[in-house]
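Practice problem: Immunoglobulin superfamily, member 9a
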Amino acid sequence: MLWLELLLRVTSLIPFLGCVRCSRFLAPAEGSSAPLHVVEWVRQGYDIPVLIKFGSYAPRVHPSYEGRVSLSGGTTLKVMGLVLEDEGWYECRILLLDKPSDETRNGSWTLLSVTAPPVFAEAPPPVTEAFVGRPITLKCVARGNPPPSIKWHKDGVLMKQRGSVKIVNGSLSVGSVSRQTAGRYQCQASNSEGNETRTTQLSVKGPPVIITPPKDTVLNMSQNALLQCQAEADPPNMTYVWMREEENVYHIESLKSRVKVMVDGTLLIPSVIPGDSGNYTCMPTNGLPAPPSASAVLTVQHPALVTQMPDQTFLPTGMSGVISCPLAAEPPLVKYGKCIIKHMVTIQISLSLYYGTMGQSKPTTVILQDPPSLRLSPREEYRQDVGRTLLIPCQADGDPPPKVTWTKIGSSTRSLYSVAVNGSLLLQPLSKEHCGQWECSVANRVATITSRTTVLVLGTSPHAVSSVSVEVRVNQANISWEPGFDGGFTQTFTIWSVLKCACSEGDQQEWQSVPGPSSGTSLLVSGLFPSTEYQFSVLAQNKLGSGPFSEITTVRTLNALPMVSGLEPPTLLSFNQSSEGVYLWWAAPSAQQPPIDNFILQSRLKEGVWLNLDEDISVNQSEMLVLGLQKVRAS
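Answer key — C-alpha cells:
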C-alpha cells in the first residue's frame, strides 16, 4: 500500500470565501475571517461527500475514507494512506449559511492521478499440480498505474503463444498437460513504476513412463533371464506387474515359485526351461490411469523333445491314420529319426536337432478300431417348398458313439437350423437362406467321416449369379456368368452397366440395363467408349421377383487402334500349276502398325468380279495350294 499525502486548498473567490486547487500539495488556507459556512468535498461517482465540515463540529467522512482524510487550514483536503482507488475527480463546495440555502459556490474539478508499481491481485501458489492430458490455467492478475504488462517465463525462458499454450489477459493456459509441461513458472508484472514477480513450481502427475523397455532375449537352457523395465512417475510410488501371454507370472504354476520382480522393475527368471519361452509384458503402475506397457519375447533354445506323447493312439481300420508327435524344439529345425516299433503295436519316436536331442518319446500304443459309419445317410439332393419342414437324416454308429454336426458350406452367415438327437438336420420353417450345400460330419476318437447334400428351396426369388467375368474389346464387352438356383421357376437375367468417372456425386452416371438372352449365360454389350472404365452387374428375376445383384465387376475397354490409310500388300506373288491345283507363294510385307491380322485370297475370270477364295490366311503363312484351279491361257 502507498502512503502518500494529497492536499487540496480552498482560496477566496469572493470577499469572504472561495475554492480553487492549490498549486502545491500542502499550503496554508486563506480566508481565515470568513463568515459561518459549510465545507463539502465531493468525488465524482460518489453519492455521499468525501468530507463535510460545519463550524467547530467534527467533520463527517465517507466510509471509504474513514481515518484517512481531514481538513488542513480550514478548507484544504488532506488524504492519508493514498491507494489506487483514490484516483478520480474531486470538487470543493462552500455553503454560506447567511445566504439562501440553494446558493453555493463551487470550485473547479481536480483530477487526482495516482501512480503505483504493480501489485498482484491474483497469483498462482508456490506449488501447483496438474494431471497428464488435462488442461491447466495459471492465473496472474496485477494492478498498478500505469496498468502493468504481464510476461511469463518457464525455467528462465520467455514464453510465447504456441500450439496449446495460450496467454490471455495475463493468464497462462495449457490445453493438454504433458510431462514436458512440468517446470518453474514465473509471472512478471511491470510498469514504469517498478515490477513484481511470482513463482510457482508446476509438477505433473500421471501414470508412469517407461524409460528402459524390455528387449527380445534369446538364452540357452539353465541360463538366468533378466528382462529390464525401468520407469519414471509422479507420484513415484510404482509397482511393476509382469505378464506372460496376458497372465500374471505369479499366477503361472511353472513360474510363480521361481520368478522375482526387482525394485527397479527387472524380471529375474533363474535357470530358464523351455516352458519359460513366450511374450512377456511389463506394466508399471502408480494408481493413475492408464498404465503403460512394453513387451519382449523370451526364447529359450533347447534340444528337441517330444511333449505329452499320448499313451494310446486310435487308428481306423481300412483308412489312413495319423500318429501325432507333439514336439518342442528351439530352433524349430527338427530331423525325425527312427520310428521304433515293438510288438507291432507300441511305437517310439526319436528326434535330432542341431542343438541335440533330449531322447526318445515315451511309447504310445496303437489301437485299431473300426471308424464310425453312417447307418442312414442324406440323399444327394432335396427339393422342398419354402415355409415347409425339411428333415435330412444323418444317423451313425461307432465305438465310442460318434458326434454328429452339420455345417452349411460356403455360408458366411449362420442359417437357422437344429440337429435332432439322432443326428438329423431339421430346417423349420424352410427359408431361402437354407438353399445350398450342407455337410454332415460324424466324428469320434478314431476318425471323422463326412457326407454332403444339396438343399433346393422352391417358391423363392432367384439366387445371385456368380463367377461374373467380362472380356473387353475396344468398344465392346462380353459378360458371362454362372446362374444361381432359380427358386423353382424360369429365370431371366438383366445386365446393368455404368460408365465409371472420377466426378462429384451429382455428376455420376446412371446405371443402364440391357435384357439378357432368353437362353444362355453371356451377352455382348456394344457401343462402349475406348479406354474407359465401366462397371457391370447381373440381376436374376423370376415370376416372384428379383434376386440380389451380383458383385460389381470393374473393367477398362481397350485403347482405340490408330487410323491407317492402307496396308502394304504381300510382294513377289508367284504360282505353279500341278495336277492337284495351283501352288502359290509370296513374300510377306514388312511389319506394320497396327499389325496385320490375316491375308485374303481373291480370284476372278478375265474381267469378271473379284471373289474371295479364302478370308483367313495366317499372317505367318507364305505359301498355299489352291485346289481345283487351272491356268487360263491368253488367246
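Discussion: The CA atoms of residues 404 and 442 lie 5 Å apart. Students who identified this feature from the C-alpha cells alone can consider the problem solved.
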